[in-house]
């Protein structure tokens, strides 16, 4: 039997070709034969479309959960529509915080960081300190600290979790925004996620990852932690929380001006950290925030830390990671052509804007959407600089 190789996502994303092919298939055999003789590729797409239609019942599980999530989303929307006063917003905030804590589970013990500097890189406008700290006993986190040269007194700081780049903090886009923030006077701590950059996980005998970097290792770790009653979302976020501990242990960091920003998987971490960490004074996740229903309807793959156990059963959505910290200054950024559905980003922003307005803080939540595909692109970075500078009270050089 010939295997079916075209997924539903491929079918949908090739809609321009398949749409014409499927319509052709549904007319007459004569027309199909004519087109097939003219273009064998169209004939192959027609054949695959017919197979897809024959096995449509194979999507029953997907459609079942889409229906369930739509029902959860509708109930949530009805409940949130009843919130019309500042007092109700703050009551919701506490309820959301309680539910999120239950989903994350108890945090681990805060143990000694044992932070150390392993080297320095001198640049014209800043110095990079190579840092290692222990987020858990003997669990090493590799990081770079960008420190502005010639700065005196306490400086604003930014924690910068990385996305799923294989080289972690060495990714050119992440170096770019770290450098630019340092040039504007920020101290920036950017750190490698597990199984990325300098943090090898699941090595083979040759010292190479036998599972794969980033997402692959995250999903394996997530499965292992689920069996132990833990979750990878909190595990990875704890690296960032201990990064905050490190920043605030330094005499040159101003605790009243502390931001967090990241892209993609770093946007995931920014979202989690925003909800978990009360010490941030501003946040800006890029290319991650949508509504959960968007990811499910679009059959968007996610990895272990992006799926917080029980969050949908608790009646929560992605906006709730930010409702938990109202009225913290928050900038949501994304791209028009991202695979994270920009419609979900806009809907999340509108929900937050209404609640922020009820507590008199509408100007503290903003949205910026660029014209690009997935990534921490120039427009998003510029919007983040402006937003952080405004709320940190500094002027860009």
Q: How would you write the strand order of the largest sheet?
A: 1-2-3-5-4-6-7-8-9
Number of domains: 2
Say which CATH homologous superfamily of the largest domain is assigned: Alpha/Beta hydrolase fold, catalytic domain
* Estimated share of beta-strand residues: 15-25%
CATH architecture of the largest domain: 3-Layer(aba) Sandwich
Structure overview:
With 397 residues, the protein is α/β, with parallel strands linked by helices. Helices cover 45% and strands 17% of the residues. It contains 14 helices and 9 strands. It has a 9-stranded mixed sheet with strand order 1-2-3-5-4-6-7-8-9, with helices on both faces. α2 (15-25) crosses α4. The longest helix is centred in the first third of the chain and has 22 residues, at 60-81. It is globular, with a radius of gyration of 23 Å. The N and C termini lie far apart (66 Å). The model is unreliable at 1-28 (pLDDT under 50).
Keywords:
alpha/beta, 397 residues, 2 domains, 9 strands, Rossmann fold
Quick overview:
The chain has 397 residues and is α/β, with parallel strands linked by helices. 45% of the residues lie in helices and 17% in strands. It contains 14 helices and 9 strands.
